[in-house]
Amino acid sequence: MKKKTNNSFLTFILNNEFFALGVEKVLEIIETSEENTLTNLPKAPESVEGVVNFRGNVIPIVNTRLKFDMPAYASNERFVIMVLQLNIGGVQQIIGTMADKVVDVIEIQEKDIQAVPEVGQGVNSDYIQGVVHRQDKFIMLLDLESAIQSDEIIRLEDTVETEEGAEDAIVEETIEV
Predict the structure, then answer these.
(1) Is residue 76 part of a domain?
(2) Per the domain annotation, does 35 fall within a domain?
C-alpha cells in the first residue's frame, strides 16, 4: 500500500467528468447496493441525499452531482459513497459524498496543476483548486471543504436530531403499548 502524501489524489467520475481530491481526506469508499440504501431526511438541504450508518455514527450524504449543478441520479443508477473527513467551518466533520465511480489514486505534482480558466459569470469555479491534464483527460481538483458550507451541515444536524428524537418517541410509545 502506498503511503498517503499530500500530492496523492483520489480520482473519481461525476457525470462523465473527472475530479480528484486529496487522499488524506478519504476514510473509506462504500459500494452501494440494495441492502445499503440511504435514509431520506425530510427538510434536509437540497444537496443532502440522506444519511447512512458509518461505524455506528449517522453521517450525511451529499449528492455531489446536485451540489455542482449536474443531472441527478436516476432511481436505478449506481453510485459509490466516499466517506470523507473535512474541516467545515473550523470543525472536523465526517460526511459522505456521492460519485459515479472511483477511478484510481494518482500522484500529482504541484508543477502539473494549472489555474482554473475564467469561464464567465454563470459558472462557479470557487470549488475547483486547479486542473490537471493527464492521458487526454482534464481532472478538476476539488475543494469540497469550500463547496459544502457549514450552514448546510448545521441544518442537517438539526434535522437528524429531530428525526432521532422522533424515532425515540416512537420506540417509547411502542414499548408502552
Answers:
(1) yes
(2) yes
> In angstroms, what is the C-alpha Rg of the chain?
18
- C-alpha angle 62/116/96, rounded to 5°? 15
Give the residue carrying C-alpha cell 473519481.
12
Q: Write out the chain's pLDDT in tens, 177 residues.
A: 444 446 899 999 999 999 999 999 999 999 887 555 788 888 888 888 889 889 888 999 999 998 888 998 888 888 999 999 998 878 888 999 999 999 999 999 989 999 887 765 444 567 888 899 988 899 999 888 877 764 555 555 555 554 454 444 333 333 333
User: What's the total number of domains in the chain?
Assistant: 1
User: What pTM does this model have?
Assistant: 0.77
Inside any domain, residue 118: yes
Domain of residue 115, CATH code = 2.40.50.180
- Is residue 3, in this structure, part of any structural domain at all? no
Say if residues 78 and 27 touch (Cβ distance below 8 Å): no
Listed in sequence order, the residues at least 6 apart from 119 whose beta carbon sits closer than 8 Å to its beta carbon are: 125
Domain extent at residue 158: 8-176
